């Protein structure tokens, strides 16, 4: 597994505003969208392309476009939806799949309540988006879904990541696939409630409000 912590002053600035507890939901949503686009630029450096012939107004030349099969973006519901537009803005031809997952706050186990993915992901570059990589259990479950369908090239894009979650993910994936994590920050640790420290709170609640 590879870890890429994006290093850019705009990323640092936007993440600092996201962390601030006084940032309202409307601003939080806008900044998540902007931050994801910056992270997506880093995450797609190795996206596969192929050569094409094109005609400019001046002369014939060669260029490149995204190769088939098209990449697939997989937001983990619900918080991952706040990252979807930022990804598809950069990859407008990508397909979109959905995984609905939530963490049981008592057991910390992952519960899956929705699954909308192609049956065969062989040869597809998969981009999983989820704001928080905390314990790592949700991302492990999501990546396992993709691997079961034949994916072997998976990039996870997270706003922040905890070292415990990164270790859990690395141990779970092993050598089964080529997995990369792209994040804006590797935070200090998890607290006793499995929240990232210093973190930014519950990303889903801050994006959409508290829904019981």
TrEMBL record:
The keyword Transport is assigned to this record: no
Pathway assignment: Pyrimidine metabolism; UMP biosynthesis via salvage pathway; UMP from uracil: step 1/1
GO molecular function, one term: glycosyltransferase activity
EC numbers for this chain: 2.4.2.9
One Pfam family in the UniProt entry: UPRTase
Similarity annotation: Belongs to the UPRTase family.
Protein name: Uracil phosphoribosyltransferase
Gene behind the chain: upp
């Amino acid at each position: 597994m590879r870890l890429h912590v994006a290093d850019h002053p705009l990323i640092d600035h936007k993440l600092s505003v996201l962390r601030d507890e006084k940032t309202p939901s409307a601003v939080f949503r806008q900044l998540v969208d902007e931050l994801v686009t910056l992270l997506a630029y880093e995450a797609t450096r190795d996206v596969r392309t192929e050569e094409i012939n094109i005609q400019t107004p001046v002369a014939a030349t060669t260029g490149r476009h995204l190769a088939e099969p098209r990449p697939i973006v997989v937001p983990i519901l619900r918080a991952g939806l706040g990252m979807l537009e930022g990804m598809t803005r950069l990859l407008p031809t990508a397909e979109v799949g959905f995984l609905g997952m939530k963490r049981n706050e008592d057991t910390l186990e992952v519960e899956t309540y929705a699954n909308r993915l192609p049956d065969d992901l062989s040869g597809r570059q998969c981009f999983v988006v989820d704001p928080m990589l905390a314990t790592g259990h949700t991302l492990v479950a999501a990546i396992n879904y993709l691997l079961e369908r034949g994916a072997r090239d998976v990039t996870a894009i997270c706003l922040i990541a905890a070292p415990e979650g990164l270790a859990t993910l690395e141990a779970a994936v092993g050598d089964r696939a080529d997995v990369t994590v792209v994040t804006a920050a590797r935070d200090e640790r998890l607290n006793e409630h499995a929240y990232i420290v210093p973190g930014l709170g519950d990303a889903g609640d801050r994006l959409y409000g508290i829904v019981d």
